[in-house]
């Protein structure tokens, strides 16, 4: 019995370690946190941002394992939704940048000066695609 | 004798990194390099013709510093040429000002627009975003909502906001003066291309076995 518990403990700890390390590696590769510190000029607070990520991941894990409910108003989900979307948007932008899409595209079709309009194509596409999905596509 | 005017006869040149020229331009030394030299020959050096761009040239020409040094020492055998900085200039021949055709641009725009809309929808399906959002909404309010639009609509606008923050552009207005990751990326890409042509378009810098 004790052996069983210890084994489960070991397996779950190993699984959690792997997932947690992978999550952090993903964030590091996409460079979301450096970008945010650069925009807000808060390089010295970066270790607190690390804690924000770690605590957020733990809170998310806890929330998804427990059936926790509160009785707040639905309007509270507006800021939460906005933050969630901004984070995913930054991940998507980081991924686009890591894949070198724009430099190659701009060079190929010679539009170095109008590249912002192309970024806007992607940004507006993401917003409208997401709105379309939630308002019409699902359900 | 040499020691007396040794310093005087030194010419310092620094090749420029990139120069854009038109077809049939004649290039003088001052076009492709910065020069420091003694008064007497400075004007002549600046007007030293180094290259004539012709229609047969590729759109990239590499001028190696050795070639320039050879030219200068042929003209003024008693000068010493010191090269500083880049050892070659990349000359970009601007054949005709090719503007992007507008329909092509619209096509690319639509490709990116539709593509990113579909990608984000696929991503949401892939990670069961709807179910997660229902659960978060349930957690906050205690009520089940099959379409928690109060969460989803701000989320959608947040997506765009996040991308704009990352790329540091709000419809051409910059948020601060540092270069955005995209500009750095464009710069790095250009550097790599330059590095490639410097090695491969410059006949002086690659020596092959069958090169006779």
Please provide a brief summary of the model.
Chain A has 139 residues and is mostly helical. Chain A has helices at residues 2-30, 32-40, 46-65, 77-98, 101-108, 115-137.
What characteristics describe this protein?
heterodimer, A: mainly alpha, B: 212 residues, alpha/beta, eubacterium ventriosum atcc fold, 2 domains, three-stranded mixed beta sheet, elongated
Q: Tally of extended strands of chain A?
A: 0
List how many beta strands of chain B DSSP finds. Answer: 10
Compute the gyration radius of chain A: what is it? 20 Å
The pair of chains with the biggest contact is: A-B, 73 and 67 residues
* Bulk shape of chain A: extended
- Arithmetic mean of pLDDT of chain B: 83
Portion in strands of chain B? 15-25%
Could you name the ranges of chain B where pLDDT drops below 50 across 5 or more consecutive residues? none
Transmembrane segments (chain B): 104-123, 149-167
Organism (chain B): Mesobacillus persicus
InterPro entries (chain B): SporV_AA, SporV_AA_N_sf
Keywords (chain B): Membrane, Transmembrane, Transmembrane helix
Q: Care to describe what's here?
A:
- Chain A: It comes from Mesobacillus persicus.
- Chain A: Keywords: Membrane, Transmembrane, Transmembrane helix.
- Chain A: This is Stage V sporulation protein AB.
- The complex is a heterodimer of chains A (139) and B (212).
- Chain A has 139 residues and is mainly α.
- Chain A has a domain of 66 residues.
- Chain A is 80% helix and 0% strand.
- The relative contact order of chain A is 0.06.
- With 212 residues, chain B is α/β, with parallel strands linked by helices.
- A 3-stranded mixed β-sheet of chain B has the order 4-1-7.
- Chain B folds into 2 domains: 85 residues, eubacterium ventriosum atcc fold (Sandwich); 94 residues, no CATH class.
- Chain B is elongated, with a radius of gyration of 29 Å.
- Helices cover 47% and strands 19% of the residues of chain B.
- In chain B, strand 9 and strand 10 form a beta hairpin.
- Classes of the chains: A mainly alpha (139), B alpha/beta (212).
- Chains A and B meet through helix 2, helix 4, helix 5 and helix 6 of A and helix 4, helix 5, helix 6 and helix 7 of B.
């Amino acid at each position: 019995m004790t052996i069983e518990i210890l084994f489960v403990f070991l397996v779950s700890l190993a699984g959690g370690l792997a997932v947690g390390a992978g999550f952090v590696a993903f964030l590091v590769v996409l460079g979301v946190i450096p970008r945010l510190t650069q925009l807000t000029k808060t390089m010295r607070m970066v270790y607190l941002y690390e804690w924000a990520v770690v605590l957020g991941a733990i809170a998310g894990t806890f929330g998804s394992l427990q059936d926790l409910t509160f009785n707040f108003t639905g309007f509270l989900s507006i800021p939460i939704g906005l933050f969630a979307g901004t984070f995913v948007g930054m991940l998507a932008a980081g991924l686009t940048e890591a894949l070198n899409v724009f430099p190659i595209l701009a060079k190929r079709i010679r539009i170095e000066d109008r590249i912002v309009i192309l970024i806007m194509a992607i940004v507006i596409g993401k917003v409208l695609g997401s709105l379309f999905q939630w308002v019409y596509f699902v359900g | 004798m040499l020691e007396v005017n040794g310093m005087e006869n030194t010419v310092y040149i620094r090749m420029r990194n990139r120069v854009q020229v038109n077809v049939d331009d004649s290039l003088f030394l001052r076009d492709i390099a910065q020069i420091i030299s003694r008064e007497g020959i400075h004007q002549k050096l600046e007007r030293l013709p180094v290259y004539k761009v012709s229609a047969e040239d590729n759109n990239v020409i590499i001028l190696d510093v050795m070639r320039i040094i050879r030219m200068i020492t042929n003209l003024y055998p008693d000068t010493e040429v010191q090269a500083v900085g880049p050892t070659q200039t990349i000359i970009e021949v601007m054949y005709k000002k090719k503007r992007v055709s507008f329909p092509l641009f619209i096509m690319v725009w639509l490709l990116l627009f539709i593509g990113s809309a579909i990608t984000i929808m696929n991503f949401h399906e892939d990670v069961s975003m709807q179910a997660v959002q229902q659960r978060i909404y349930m957690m906050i309010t205690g009520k089940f909502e099959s379409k928690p639009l109060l969460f989803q609509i701000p989320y959608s606008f947040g997506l765009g906001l996040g991308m704009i923050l990352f790329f540091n552009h709000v419809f051409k207005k910059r948020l601060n003066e540092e270069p955005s990751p995209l500009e750095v990326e464009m710069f790095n890409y250009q550097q790599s291309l330059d590095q490639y042509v410097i090695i491969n378009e410059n006949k002086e810098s690659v020596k092959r076995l069958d090169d006779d």
